[in-house]
Design brief:
By secondary structure, the chain is of the alpha/beta class. It is 41% helix and 14% strand.
């Protein structure tokens, strides 16, 4: 191996050119993969690069090719199994396409989200998948959308950015079906545990069609209220229980509810973290499930079949959510480069290549972006049953 001074840093393209006996421009064309070079010159440069252990400068290559071969992903809680599963699927899809992924976690903090967006922009990612922190995220993302950076919204829509693709779950309909299941069993005092409970006055009379424009927890509240109205029941504000996304907080919120209103016979939780807290609360309260209180959760995590009774849940297609978002982003990146990714208006562009086509629907009314809706489904297990008989 040619001698280089210790501490002199990684070899430069100038050193490779000198070692190969060619011009720096020729070495740059060979190592950068652009322009023309003779077979002899190419062999000399590649041999010199191997001898010097030369590694290409990623930033320089991105300036030449207009691509860093990276995508960014920003989520609110990577520790939540829902997002962990979706992010894993994103990773699998983008790596198979030759990209690497930069991941940021915001903890639903607006300032952390702003910093994450800025970092992704400065790192020159080729595209970005975002689970927005709140509707205010639209303003933080607008500059990127206006600059033409391919964006896909994950799980949470932003009506203020109709030009951006979004991949969501049919949250409102799923919540309707979950609550309708409890109604069919005979329940009338059905409570709901939700992070969006304080928005209920605004949401209680919303039409189901309006629900999926809301963030997931709010959309599920719309479905809850719609199911009660359809059953001829008036939503009771006293049964709308607020809790942040925290297991202990959810436990205490449910315990307070049961002390305040012992007539509650069923509880619908709009999130898997809240459902785990509700299970703990029922255990601590001494209430039998489902003999005293029936329980429905949202998202089918591994623990939901390990507890007894096994939990009735709305199962979300978590991995498909991530893979669909990743595939849509790659399509947008290809379209921006002019690689001929196909007509974005075709049905094929609205589904995934992983067997999820029957479970996805495209909103034809979206202005420029596509609204891809994946379907969740109710899984009835042992935690729901008829209400206790009134003696």
């Amino acid at each position: 191996m040619p001698h280089r001074e210790k501490g002199s840093g990684p070899p430069s393209i100038v050193e490779v050119a000198r070692e190969a006996g060619v011009s720096t421009a020729t070495a740059g064309r060979v190592l950068g993969g652009y322009g023309q070079a003779s077979a002899a010159s190419r062999a000399k440069v590649e041999d010199a690069a191997r001898r010097l252990s030369y590694r290409p400068n990623g930033l320089a290559r991105s300036l030449i090719h207009g691509s860093t071969e990276t995508v960014g992903v920003i989520v609110t809680d990577v520790g939540n199994p829902f997002f962990a599963s979706a992010v894993r699927a994103i990773t699998d899809v983008v790596r198979a396409a030759g990209y690497e992924m930069l991941l940021a976690n915001t903890d639903s903090d607006p300032e952390a989200e702003r910093r994450a967006i800025q970092v992704m922009w400065e790192k020159r990612v080729d595209g970005l998948i975002v689970a927005p922190q709140s509707p205010e995220s639209a303003e933080r993302l607008r500059a990127l959308a206006d600059a033409g950076l391919p964006l896909v919204l994950l799980d949470r829509p932003l009506p203020a950015l109709p030009q951006v693709d979004q991949v969501i779950i049919n949250n409102t309909l799923c919540a309707q079906r979950a609550v309708a299941h409890l109604v069919r069993l005979g329940h009338r005092r059905i409570a709901v545990l939700s992070e969006a409970a304080r928005d209920f006055p605004r949401l209680r009379d919303a039409a189901p069609a309006e629900g999926d424009a809301e963030r997931p927890s709010a959309a599920r509240l719309v479905g809850y209220a719609a199911a009660l109205r359809r059953a001829g029941l008036t939503p009771d504000p006293g049964l709308i229980v607020h809790s942040p996304y925290d297991r202990d907080a959810a436990t205490h919120a449910v315990l307070r509810l049961l002390r305040r209103d012992p007539g509650v016979t069923a509880l619908f939780c709009t999130d898997n973290v809240l459902a785990s807290g509700a299970v703990a609360a029922l255990q601590r309260s001494g209430r039998a499930c489902p003999d005293d209180v029936s329980l429905v959760g949202f998202d089918d995590q591994e623990w939901t079949t390990l507890v007894r009774p096994r939990l009735t849940v709305v199962r979300q297609p978590n991995r498909e959510l991530g893979s669909t978002a990743a595939e849509r982003l790659l399509e947008r990146i290809a379209e921006r480069r002019g690689d001929g990714a196909g007509d974005p208006g075709t049905e094929e562009a609205a589904t995934t290549g992983s067997g999820t086509a029957p479970d996805a629907a495209r909103d034809a009314d979206a202005q420029d972006g596509q609204r891809l809706v994946l379907r969740g489904r109710l899984i009835a297990r042992d935690s729901t049953g008829p209400p206790p008989a009134v003696s």
